[in-house]
Amino acid sequence: MLKPNYSEFSLEAGTEEAGRGCLCGPVVAAAVILPKDFIHPFLNDSKQLSEKRREELRPFIEENAIAFGVSFVWQDEVDEINVLQASITGMHRSIDALKIIPEFIIVDGNKFRDYNEIPHQTIVKGDAKYLSIAAASVLAKTYRDEYMAKIHQEFPMYNWKKNKGYPTKEHRNAIREFGANIHHRKTFRLLPEQLKLKG
């Protein structure tokens, strides 16, 4: 059972990102403040849910949350500031997008920067422990997947609709065959052989 709150505050925001381990596309972050009585039978860490379940949950979360915010950190910025900083920056921007200022922030993972002097707590595997982080993980994942399906239409050879930009064998084979494009992250090791010496 996921817990409703970590702190004693009623306006506690959970935040999470998606796409950190991808070879292309944005890092997408979300922040969610849920009411105390929020309940849904299958809300869990988005990685534990099927795509269909996540798609069902997204409108339910958006309609029933006290507030939610989503932000995109595009691949050029990910290259510029590195993926960890992009994740934290994205989480900050998604909190910026909340229509209500939270009193406390819980963060999935173990790294965060102070946000406007609001107290926070990092929680490893927080998306499998707290409802608001799980809800944020669902929003971040569904918004990102939707975007990857959209750019898939322009570049179907990479099959982003299916692999979502993760380093699957199929994705890497497509990079070998067609090269990288504008959506790929330039600082990422797109292919395992990139770091091997020729000769």
Automatic annotation (TrEMBL):
InterPro entries recorded: RNase_HII, RNase_HII/HIII, RNase_HII/HIII_dom, RNaseH-like_sf, RNaseH_sf
GO biological process: DNA replication, removal of RNA primer; mismatch repair
Co-factor requirement: Mn(2+); Mg(2+)
Cofactor note: Manganese or magnesium. Binds 1 divalent metal ion per monomer in the absence of substrate. May bind a second metal ion after substrate binding.
Keywords per UniProt: Cytoplasm, Endonuclease, Hydrolase, Manganese, Metal-binding, Nuclease
The keyword Transcription is assigned to this record: no
Keyword Cytoplasm tagged: yes
Molecular function GO terms recorded: manganese ion binding; RNA binding; RNA-DNA hybrid ribonuclease activity
Annotated RNase H type-2 domain residues: 10-199
Subcellular location: Cytoplasm
Cited Pfam families: RNase_HII
Residues engaged in binding a divalent metal cation: E17, D108
Cellular component aspect of the GO annotation: cytoplasm; ribonuclease H2 complex
Family to which the UniProt record says this protein belongs: Belongs to the RNase HII family.
Name the UniProt record assigns to this protein: Ribonuclease HII
Species of provenance: Polaribacter filamentus
